[in-house]
Design a protein that fits this description.
The chain is of the alpha+beta class. It is 37% helix and 15% strand. Strands 3, 4, 5, 6, 9 and 10 form a six-stranded mixed beta sheet that branches. It has a two-stranded antiparallel sheet with strand order 1-2. Strands 7-8 form a two-stranded antiparallel sheet. The chain starts with 8 loop residues before the first strand and ends with a helix.
Length: 263
């Protein structure tokens, strides 16, 4: 569909571009559809892939077969059911959403189901969360230095950061990281089952990572022995902005598809 470069339009997935005057008629196709734009762009460049977009709050796991996105769900409810949408992200997720019990220095603890710490605290201690993506206030409103971060994750098991050294709390952060990876991997395994084929010639899917939690997508690819690619590697972008292309993949994909539509 060709549209005017000056038109105010919304991306509506398979319905194409919808003008502002008629968005109410297409709301169900417009709502949360940007993940589909990313998967379309991936499918045009890789015939067999799984898009793993881990943002601040959620994770999208979108299978691409023979160059086409083939999700079982198209809306949030259906994608939550299929495992293609996981409400875990690298910044805002409360730690109590990741585990019921967790080990610290050889002892297991029940997890306090309170908003005491978030996944940003984990990845701040592991050194994987880029500062420019650490934009949300800490759960307790305190600082984001290492000491304040250790105090928050210690509180999750009723401890105080002064009761152990920094290395112990770093190991504890890694335990939370593993709990998050395990939950995403459980859903990713369900999605990967769709690539099972009696034909050996079908290539293994490439995991395409995106989002501020892209480093977890890379870890999941290694866990499954699958090739990994950055979303930015599939986009004709200046080298200086590739990190943001990865982080903002849905917006980039919508912009690219719109640029093509206006010719």
């Amino acid at each position: 569909m060709r549209v005017s470069a000056t038109a105010c339009v919304s991306f509506a997935g398979s319905e194409g571009w919808v003008e502002a005057a008629t968005v109410g008629e297409h709301w169900s196709s417009i709502a949360s559809a940007n993940w589909l734009a990313t998967a379309w762009w991936v499918g045009e460049r890789l015939s067999e892939a799984v898009l793993v977009d881990i943002g601040s709050t959620t994770t999208d796991l979108i299978p691409v077969r023979e160059g086409q996105p083939v999700p079982l769900g198209r809306n949030d409810a259906d994608r939550l059911s299929s495992g293609e949408l996981v409400y875990l992200g690298a910044v805002r997720t409360p730690l109590c959403a990741l585990a019921r019990r967790i080990a610290f220095e050889g002892c297991e603890y029940n997890v306090m189901n309170e908003f005491f710490a978030t996944t940003a605290d984990i990845f701040r201690l592991t050194g994987e969360l880029a500062p420019e993506h650490d934009q949300y206030p800490a759960a307790d409103g305190a600082g984001k230095d290492a000491e304040a971060t250790r105090q928050r994750i210690a509180r999750m098991i009723g401890r105080d950061a002064s009761e152990a050294d920094a290395a112990a709390w770093s190991r504890f952060a890694s335990a939370w990281r593993e709990a998050m990876l395990a939950e995403i991997d459980h859903n990713l395994t369900r999605v990967l089952l769709r690539f099972s084929s009696p034909t050996p010639a079908v290539p293994r899917p490439t995991v395409v990572g995106a989002g501020c939690g892209l480093f977890l997508g890379e870890a999941l690819a290694r866990r499954h022995g699958l090739p990994f690619a950055h979303f930015a590697g599939l986009v004709p972008a200046d080298e200086r902005c590739r990190a943001w292309v990865d982080t903002c993949a849905p917006s980039v994909a919508v912009a690219l598809l719109f640029a093509r539509a206006v010719g």
